[in-house]
Design brief:
The complex is a heterodimer of chains A (about 100) and B (about 150). With about 100 residues, chain A is mainly alpha-helical. Chain A contains four helices and no strands. Chain B has one domain (about 1-150). Classes of the chains: A mainly alpha (about 100), B mainly alpha (about 150).
């Protein structure tokens, strides 16, 4: 059993989801999975060396991850309220229409 | 054996979280992912980190449940059991490399630092700076809300 490979698989699933999903909520979930893969690697390598420094870095990484989550969720709510959809491709089309109207 | 089951569960719930159609089911699967991750942390001896992960996960999930309910449109057709079974199968297949393969290499000699020492002494400045960043973000949100409320009048 190898946690490094497990975290790599998590990272791959997250990146695949980020590239293929068009829904903003799914994009957010993909980012969470990528972050989980990274933190899993931190814990595994920290415990392999038997030291607390990795765990301390991990707590800092969690805080950053939470801030990123808050910003993404705020963007999600703003975009959904403004354009009435959470689909990225539709939002981009609506943005293009908006800019054409302004011109 | 328990580690392998938890690893398979982690990958399966990650796949379900990404590819289930209904947002609420996706968030429920993400809850499973966080739970399995916390269990892996406990197995690695990082109990404090597991508790932290669980607390952060619960907060994130509560907001996600709300936003998933509010913002997502209901899919026209319900996900078929065949589709869900295929996702679970894909998750199990994806977790096989982690169960059967291993990466071996030289492990660097680390310094003998306890967790509390590392957090408050070695990375103390980082912790304080990060606290400042989070406070700034909270202040920014409060100002934006205040401006919006005043502008709306």
């Amino acid at each position: 059993m190898d946690f490094v490979i497990l975290s790599l698989v998590m990272l791959a699933i997250g990146v695949y989801g980020l590239l293929t999903n068009r829904h903003l909520l799914k994009v957010f979930i993909s980012v969470e999975l990528i972050a989980t893969g990274a933190t899993l690697n931190f814990v595994t390598l920290a415990s392999a060396m038997g030291k607390g420094l990795g765990e301390a870095f991990l707590i800092l990484a969690f805080s950053t991850d939470t801030a990123v989550s808050a910003v993404i969720l705020a963007l999600l709510v703003i975009v959904s309220k403004k354009y009435g959809t959470s689909d990225i491709s539709e939002v981009m089309k609506l943005q293009e229409n908006d800019s054409e109207v302004e011109e | 054996m328990i580690v392998e089951i938890i690893s398979v569960g982690l990958i399966v719930t990650a796949c379900l979280a990404l590819f289930l159609d209904e947002a609420v089911y996706s968030v429920a699967a993400l809850a499973g992912t966080f739970l399995f991750t916390a269990l892996i942390y406990v197995l690695n001896g990082a109990v404090f980190v597991a508790i932290f992960q669980f607390a952060v996960g619960v907060g994130t999930l509560a907001i996600l449940f709300l936003s998933g309910e509010m913002l997502s449109e209901k899919p026209a057709k319900r996900a078929s059991p065949k589709n869900t079974a295929a996702l679970i199968g894909a998750g199990i297949v994806l977790s096989l490399p982690a169960v059967f393969l291993s990466v071996s290499g030289a492990v660097a000699e680390g310094s003998d630092v306890s967790f509390g020492d590392a957090l408050w002494n070695l990375r103390g400045v980082d912790v304080v700076l990060q606290g400042l960043v989070i406070l700034t973000v909270a202040l920014g949100i409060a100002i934006v809300l205040y401006e919006k409320r005043n502008g709306g009048k």
